[in-house]
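Methyltransferase type 11 domain-containing protein: structure, please.
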Amino acid sequence: MGIGPQAVELYKLLRDNGNLHGVNSVIELGSQEIPPTAGWHQNYARTFVSSITEKAPKSNPLTTQEFYEALGISDYACIDVNGENDALVYDLNTDIMQNYGIDKTYDLVTNFGTTEHIFNQYQCFKNMHDLLKVGGLAIHILPFEGYLNHGYFNYQPSFFIDLGIANSYELIGIYYSGEMSGFRNVVPIPYTKDLPLVLHELCLAGKFSYTPQNNTSSLEVVYRKTLAASFQSPFDARFSDVNKLHNNYVAISMSQRDKSYNKQMYKDVEKYMAGRSLSY
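Here you go.
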C-alpha cells in the first residue's frame, strides 16, 4: 500500500492527540514508500512534513525515513521479501523472532496493506505482537470492502475487536476510509455500527456509486500494547456462549463486546456525518 494520504491523515490525528509522544523507533511490515509516481500522494505527505518542520523536505521524492524523522522517529526498519530500502528479508509466514534471532522490540509496528498478501495470518499478527514494546503502538491500514483479487484477505471490525480483547490491547480507535465513484475520504472516520447504513442511504440517494467493482475502503486500527504477555488467538464473541473449549481462548460475549465497542469507538461519529470528513 505504501504511506498514502490515509496514513498521513491517521498520523496527523495520532500526533495531534499526543499518541506519538515517546515513539522513537518503528518497524514496518512491508518496505513502505510514499509513491513517487502518484503526485498527490507525494504532495500530501510533503505538505504534512512541512507543517511539522516549518521547512521543505530535503528529499525529493520524499523518503519514508524523512517522513518518520519529521514525526520524531529516527530508528527505522522494515521487513519485505523484496529487500528494497534496506528491508530485512524475513518470511512473515514464520516465527521471525525465533527463526531470525530477533531480540529487538519497537515503539511502533505498522501494517499498511501487507498482511492481506500473506497466508499465515496467525503468525503475521503474532510477529507484530512480538516486535512491539509494552506501551508501543500497532497500526493497521487494511482492505475492508472491495479490493477484488488484491490479496488473500479483507478484514472485519469484529476481528480487530476480538484480537484486542484477547491480548488486552488498548484500542485507540478503529477508523474507516473509502474511495469509490463520486466519493473519496482520506480523513479517518470513526467506525460505528451506523456507518454502513449511512453509506447505504447516501448511495441510494445517488450521492455516489457503491458497488463491489468500484468501491475500495480500508479499516484503520490503532492499538497500544499493555502487557508483556504471549500472543493470544482471538475467539469470535458471536460464539462465546456455546464455546466448550472454556479457557483455551480469551473471549467475551456479544453483548459485552457491543458494550465495549460502543464505549470505545462510537463517540465522535455525528460530527463526521455532519460533513467534516464524509464529503460527497
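Notes: The first helix runs from residue 5 to 16.
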